[in-house]
Amino acid sequence: MLVKSVEIKKQPKLTANKSKILNFLVQQKFATTKQVWQSLQPHKSRGHTFVELRRIENQGLVISFKFEPESGSNGELCWLITKAGANLVGAKFDSTNYKIPSRESIERKGLYLEIENQVGYAGWNFLKPVTYNSVHPMPNKTPQHWKLIDIVDQIEGAAIEAAINRDEDVTTKIADFEEGRHKRVVPLQINDYVIFPPEQDKAFVLIACPKGASVRFWKNRISLYQTLTRKIKVIGVFVSQSHADAYHVPIEASGIKCIEVSQVYDEMQCANAN
After folding, report:
1. Sheet-wide strand order for 204-208
2. CB-based contacts of 272: which residues, under 8 Å, 6+ apart?
């Protein structure tokens, strides 16, 4: 389903806040009021963000539709940029910008954005999942693979150094390290979040679990990460605690921890303290 374009008669002035919102919508394609607020204006009220979005909408720079129509007038709105909005910030625009996303896509984006916001608040960095297809196929070794190779290498090197300081025999560990055996735990085609601090001395893999994730989704992840969990913490991230509780028994038996998305920041803080 496509939404209609909006004609504007006068070129609006581009302010700093307006530019941030428009560029955010260019990058994200769409976002709800809550997602814009949490990503760009968490220091302000949600109502302030809504009023600002409405003002930009009245200028013909964005359009909105009801994301939660069952909630009536109190339902959440989802926002898309218009051609005029894209032109104002010098961004490319095509007809896909007018395509209304599915509810599942909006909820998944909300999960991704909350993960990325919390990682940013903690001062960590991340590599995010990429959409691969026939035009842009998945490489034999993804960027997440190479990042984890570097970090596992650093972790193993530090462990050997600590063992030497304890006067332990590290002959076998050094031989394994030199032959790169410790790197074999890292899967080749990881396409989940990999998050890490600036020091790059630790990392987590975060599996963003959408609502209604299939048995196959988790079987694939458990198979992929069963050896990596020996070196790197792998975490399934869910939209709510009840969602996490529904999955945690079979998943945590495989060494993958289950948490709700609001706990991602706490996991990083605990890692920083250790």
Report:
1. 125-127, 193-196, 204-208, 233-238, 257-260
2. 122, 197
Quickly state the pLDDT bin for 62 (edges 50, 70, 90): very high
Tokens of 19: 């530019």
**CA-CA distance, 232 to 205, in Å (whole number)?**
7
Q: Are 211 and 178 a contacting pair, CB within 8 Å?
A: no
Q: Which residues are CB-contacts of 20 (< 8 A; sequence separation ≥ 6)?
A: 40
Radius of gyration (C-alpha) of the chain in whole angstroms? 22
Q: Of 202, 201, 204, which is closest to residue 193 (Cα–Cα)?
A: 204
The identity of residue 194, as a single letter, is V
pLDDT tens digit string along 90-144? 998 876 666 788 888 898 899 999 999 999 999 999 999 998 988 889 999 999 9
Per-residue pLDDT, averaged over 217-223, amounts to 90
Helices (H), 90-170: 103-121, 143-165
**137-167 pLDDT, tens per residue?**
999 999 999 999 999 999 999 999 999 999 9
For residue 127, the cross-strand partners are: 194
